[in-house]
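Q: What residues go here?
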């Protein structure tokens, strides 16, 4: 199974910093991930510092594999000071450790109880309670789950469950029960919705419930979705040995999943070896990038070095909806889970210019940077095959 995870957030109205903090790390070799969502006391800069400190420390404790997640969370729970004015903890948190076999360990302290949905129904898992040895009003909940294909786990800060509190429609706020109704309706309407879209939907709904649609607290939603991986292949650059063109073209044709070609020479190679004509897009390209082309059996065909460089820039900066070839390649990549790059090692004389920056001159460097940001920022599985 592939774990599709994402978190969306919005700041409290009129604040310049997020009071909630989300951090995560994926371990490709071990096929597991760790994620932490912390809610700092109050809002603004102070809350941001408190939540960031809590989430970062907890992630570091867990990822070291020195102590189990429950013990790490217990240490944090017993260490967090109490606000002398409000007499409550400086921050609350939820943490999860999950692998692709569906094994999950979850710890919660102070945050709203997470929601586990399977086939549209909410499951109620058992948990172990660990009371704080330092503070009487704190208690850690520890869960051990076995998730199945299609399961979803939803975590949020109290900015979601308390949205609309004291308003006209929801005097007591959205609450967990109201969030469950929203989730079940949305999943019935769109059963395959991604974690990115679902977490954004939760945040938007919580904000819309508020008076004048202004968030009265920081709002955060994190979603995990256990599903079959979506495979994708990007072929760029001709192979070093030309006599192997037919072999690599066959590999490309037999790939089970979405396919993209980045580079005119590469597109011509596939067209020649598979006898598939290329249709050029005659519309005016937007910006400085050449337009896409079309070929039967290929989901996306773009120009090479320039488009790849711009794609990598978009991925790093978080730009998703740009209407040009690079924007389409970004969408192609982000709509996939397991991405394979087939990278030809033959030098393209059209781009061999010592005066050009290294990102333009060397295709391998661009792909390496793209693979890194896809893994670290977007939690994708990426492999690179050089030919």
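A:
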């Amino acid at each position: 199974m592939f774990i599709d995870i994402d978190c969306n957030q919005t700041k409290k109205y009129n604040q310049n910093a997020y009071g909630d903090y989300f951090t995560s790390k994926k371990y490709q070799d071990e096929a597991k991930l760790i994620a932490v969502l912390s809610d700092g006391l109050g809002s603004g800069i102070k809350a941001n510092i408190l939540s960031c400190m809590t989430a970062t420390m907890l992630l570091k404790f867990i990822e070291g594999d020195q102590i189990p997640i429950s013990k790490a969370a217990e240490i944090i729970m017993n260490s967090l000071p109490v606000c002398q004015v409000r007499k409550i903890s400086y921050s609350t948190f939820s943490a999860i450790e999950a692998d692709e076999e569906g094994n999950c360990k979850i710890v919660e302290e102070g945050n709203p109880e997470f929601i586990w949905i399977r086939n549209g129904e909410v499951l109620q898992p058992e948990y172990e309670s660990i009371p704080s040895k330092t503070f009487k009003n704190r208690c850690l909940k520890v869960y051990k789950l076995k998730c199945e294909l299609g399961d979803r786990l939803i975590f949020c800060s109290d900015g979601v469950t308390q949205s609309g509190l004291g308003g006209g429609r929801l005097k007591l706020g959205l609450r967990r029960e109201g969030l469950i109704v929203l989730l079940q309706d949305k999943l019935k309407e769109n059963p395959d919705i991604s974690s990115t879209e679902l977490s954004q939907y939760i945040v938007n709904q919580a904000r819309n419930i508020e008076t004048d649609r202004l968030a009265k607290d920081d709002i955060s939603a994190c979603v995990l979705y256990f599903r079959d991986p979506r495979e994708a292949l990007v072929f760029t650059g001709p192979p070093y040995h030309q006599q192997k063109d037919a072999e690599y073209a066959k590999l490309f044709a037999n790939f089970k999943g979405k396919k993209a070609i980045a580079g005119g020479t590469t597109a011509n190679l596939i067209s020649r070896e598979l006898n598939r004509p290329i249709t050029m897009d005659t519309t005016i390209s937007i910006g400085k990038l050449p337009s896409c082309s079309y070929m039967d059996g290929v989901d996306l065909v773009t120009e090479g070095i320039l488009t790849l460089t711009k794609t990598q820039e978009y991925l790093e900066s978080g730009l998703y909806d740009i209407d040009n070839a690079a924007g389409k390649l970004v969408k192609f990549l982000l709509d996939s889970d397991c991405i394979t790059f087939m990278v030809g090692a033959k030098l393209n004389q059209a781009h061999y210019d010592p005066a050009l920056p290294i990102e333009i001159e060397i295709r391998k460097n661009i792909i390496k940077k793209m693979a890194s940001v896809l893994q670290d920022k977007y939690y994708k599985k990426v492999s690179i095959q050089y030919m």
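A: Context that may help when evaluating the design: Residues 356-360 have pLDDT under 50 and may be disordered. The domain at 2-227 is CATH 3.60.40.10 (Phosphatase 2c; domain 1).
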